[in-house]
Amino acid sequence: MATNHRNQITHSAEARFFLRPEKPLHRQYEALRAFFLEGGSSHEVARRFGYSPGAFRVLCHQFRHDREKRDSFFQDVRHGPQSAPSRDRVRTLAVAMRKKNLSVYDIQHELAAAGHKISINALSVLMREEGFARLPRRRDDERPATVKPEAAAVANVKVLDLSPRSFRTRVGGLFLFVPLMREINLTRVLSQVDLPGSGMIPAEQAIRSLLALKLISKERKSHVMDLVFDEGIALFAGLNVVPKRSYLAAYSSRVAHETNLELMGAWFEEVQRTGLKRGSSIDLDFHTVPANTGEEPLEKHYVSSRSRSQKGILVFLARDATERVLCYSNAGLTKSEQAGEILRFVDFWKAHTGGLPQELVFDSQLTTYSHLNELNRRGILFMTLRRRSRRMLGEIWSRPASAWRRITLQSLTRTFRTPRVLDERIRLRGYEGDLRQVTVTDLGHEDPTILLTNNLGIKCASLVTRYAQRMLIENGISDAIQFFHLDALSSMVGMKVDFDLQITLMAASLYRLMAGKIGREYERAQAKKIFRNLLDVTATVVVTDDQVIATLDKRAHNPYLVASGLAETPTPMPWFGNKNLLIRFA
Q1: Strands 308-320 and 281-290
Q2: Mean pLDDT over residues 268-280, rounded?
Q3: Domain boundaries, the chain
Q4: Which end of the chain, N or C, is surrounded by fewer C-beta atoms within 10 Å?
Q5: How many CB atoms within 10 Å of residue 430?
Q6: Please, which residues have CB within 8 angstroms of residue 245's CB and are 6 or more apart in sequence?
Q7: DSSP-derived secondary structure for 333-377
Q8: What's the rounded Cα separation, in Å, for the pair 533 and 550?
Q9: Average pLDDT, rounded, for the chain
Q10: Quick one: DSSP state of residue 466?
Q11: Could you tell me which CATH number the domain at 8-71 has?
Q12: Dist CA 516 CA 560 (whole Å)
């Protein structure tokens, strides 16, 4: 049965390709074919393919008399190059070099020296064409002689060099932490914790090495390779050379979570005993260390810097609002553990200070109302935000003007110093008794701020001012990220992040002690500024029979260090032959 081409319903997609050509050149071809081969009339073919009669006659004329027009319908296939000049030019040389057991990289280097430029991919293809298999891994003595990095000695406390000598160091600022840590018995701290160590690198030397990298703001443990020949950091660590990146990166894998908590507790008590005060008000917050890998089975948490939820490790941080120092951390929390972490912090604080924290300040998503009830039952004051709902906002805006009153904030730097407040008592599910709710407007935000607290005696102005100061914990987290590189961790394994956090807490405590010693403009400065202005300094170190003399190079801010008194008296270094450290300024 013949197919009716005029019945569009019976046309397949393949048939419509020929019957209704879309491309101009294809349409011309089909029209000419219908006229010259199928014998259609000029007017019928022109109408069928959408040409005017005159235009189709011109097309037919071009087809009859213009050879280029006829040739334009079909193009010759252009074949690619049948030879590879870049490979053929060096084929003989490359084969001869491969017979000498040279890799494609070695061959490329040799050919470049001879003036032949060729890519690694082209060389790999050439080797396959010539029948050479992939070169097996070679021993060092089988490789050609090339320029290689100089290998540093293996870290070993048994070969620590105590002989008199002098050297230059890039990390002269580290020596200022030695007198600062005079009263901190690191040996006693580590004796309370079962940290891994060996005869070559004891636990104290390993911790000193890791702590040194934090104090000088090295972003990753692999960056220690920049300092393997620097005797200054090795002297601070008490080793002949600082351990390499493989040792430092793997060290935290051997530390259990319970050990991290023990280390944090022992250090917390030690720095408190040596003069780091503890305030009465604590700021709490969560921070997500974003994961850049899909391999680890991690939960998704909100990352504030990226304004989205993604896989990462959730970290709980506590910051002493008075002393402006991070004092507690816990990493690797799951969503089910998130709400209860505040009570674990309270237990930690009580175990190591003998009392409960007086006041906790945090945002609305840190815990639940039932945990707020437990804080209230224990007699702990808290201050937090309440999440706004559409219904709640409707109730707030429906309150009469007489229910509101204006207050004056004492801060002279605030733009909005006279907000309106609505102070009332409420009850919430999961919380026993009344809660104080203070709604604040005219603070520069479109929606009101709703504060919840169990502190019934504090004035509204003091309440608003204190919660605004909670935002300073963001500065502390920012300092931990930018200077101590909290987010630039060597692994997404939770335990390794946890250990890195403990080293960060130790370094943050030392910088806060340093700021207190220096005083003046630096008493409330962040670690980044202290290091950049004061401690990022080179030095000349002279080792004698009984002394180590570190002479810091001249810098504009050295008078602050002189006035701090850190260099006034010699400091014994038990980890370096019990020699006395003397700090001088050029």
Answers
A1: antiparallel
A2: 87
A3: 8-71, 85-142, 181-355+472-521, 363-469
A4: N
A5: 10
A6: 221, 222, 223, 224, 225
A7: E-HHHHTTHHHHHHHHHHHHHSS--SEEE--TTSS-HHHHHHHHH
A8: 18
A9: 87
A10: H
A11: 1.10.10
A12: 12
- Coil/strand/helix, residue 431: coil
**Which one-letter amino acid corresponds to residue 445?**
H
For residue 223, give both structure tokens. Answer: 């960056």
Q: Find all residues with CB under 8 Å of 307, minimum gap 6, and list them.
A: none
Please tell me which residue, 103 or 252, carries the higher pLDDT value: 103
What region does 561 belong to: left with phi over 0, alpha with psi -120 to 50, or beta?
alpha
Assign 303 to helix, strand or coil: strand
Residue 429 three-state SS: coil
Q: Which residues pair with 437 in a beta bridge?
A: 424, 452
- Give the span between the Cα atoms of 337 and 314, in whole angstroms: 10
Q: What is the pLDDT of residues 341-360, one digit of tens each?
A: 999 999 999 999 999 999 99
What percentage of the chain carries pLDDT values higher than 90? Answer: 47
Mean pLDDT of 483-500: 68
Kindly state the tokens that stand for 85: 């000049």
**Cβ-Cβ contacts under 8 Å for 457 (sequence gap 6 or more):** none
pLDDT digits (tens, 9 = 90+) for 222-235: 778 888 899 999 99
Percent of the chain's residues with pLDDT above 70 = 94
Over 41-106, what HEC string results? Answer: CHHHHHHHCCCCHHHHHHHHHHHHHCHHHHHCCCCCCCCCCCCCHHHHHHHHHHHHHHCCCCCHHH
Cβ contacts of residue 9 below 8 Å, gap of 6+?
none
Determine the pLDDT at residue 3.
43
C-beta neighbour count of 197 within 10 angstroms: 17
- Rounded to 10°, the helix 24-36/53-65 angle is 80
Rounded CA separation 572/553 (Å): 22
Distance of alpha carbon 232 from alpha carbon 169, whole angstroms:
5
**Does 324 have pLDDT greater than 80?**
yes
User: Quick one: tokens of 219?
Assistant: 């972003």
> Which tens digit of pLDDT belongs to each residue from 90-139?
898 999 999 888 899 999 999 998 888 999 999 998 999 889 988 888 88
Residues 321, 472 contacting (CB under 8 angstroms): yes
Neighbours of 452 (CB within 10 A): 19
d(CA 375, CA 369): 10
Task: Give the whole-angstrom CA distance, residue 453 versus residue 400.
Answer: 23
Q: Residue type at 15?
A: A
pLDDT for the residue 173: 94
Taking residues 49-58, report their average pLDDT. 90
* 3-state class (DSSP) for residue 439: strand
Identify the band that residue 79 occupies on the pLDDT scale cut at 50, 70 and 90: confident
